[in-house]
């Protein structure tokens, strides 16, 4: 680490993400000249250019990209060692960035931040929206410290040795339809076979899981509208353009009145916390995990 330099490695990692010396300087608090010097020092140690000019910014060379990718692991290992040494302290202090997506941002983020501020005032939480199907990768890449994830029995999240999944909440799906649809408040998937459907594409875990559930019920859903935005799907369903599956958390994203039909079929999804396995010993990550468990246990989701 002394030869490569922690500051230089962090500058290179940020440069890979931001694409300009000025942006890295703004993020790290160093001058642009100081950042350039750190990159030049790394190039001297490696013996090969790490960057090339690209318009007003810079791009990493192949050598630079390899070093930046390896630097993420090196910096994480250093942070984990420091975190373990400080774990004996009674006060949790530091900053964590949380990856969120649609329904978790709308329903769980605010209670988490507020509860954390009460029990751990020294822990500063920030958030960043990530694609629901890319949360684990965002943690592995170091873009966020932890992230909400979602998986389905028929389409589980891929397991990787670098990350671990902490179960938080299991939700059952119901069907959202137009308020004008008559009948009882419960139904089955097979009874909905005759309706047009509003689903995410089949290539998504959500879309694959729902289609698999429909096939288990004996039919292939007639998908008229493929949308990934939950609020848009609920809007279409509320206007009578089809049926769409929803969970209690997903319902809060809707602005259009809908009628919710509970399903006799058990179709579920599981909300998890994705964290880097090397970070499990960090006091901040442990504290966040416990607060989040309390929030999901107490926060109403119906």
From TrEMBL:
Keyword DNA-binding assigned: yes
Keyword Acyltransferase: no
This protein's UniProt keywords: DNA-binding, Transcription, Transcription regulation
Domain HTH lysR-type: start-end pairs: 9-61
One protein family per Pfam: LysR_substrate
Any single GO CC term annotated in Swiss-Prot or TrEMBL for this entry: protein-DNA complex
Entry's Gene Ontology molecular function annotations: DNA binding; DNA-binding transcription factor activity
PANTHER family the UniProt entry points to: LYSR SUBSTRATE-BINDING, TRANSCRIPTIONAL DUAL REGULATOR HCAR-RELATED
Protein family: Belongs to the LysR transcriptional regulatory family.
Name of this chain's protein: DNA-binding transcriptional LysR family regulator
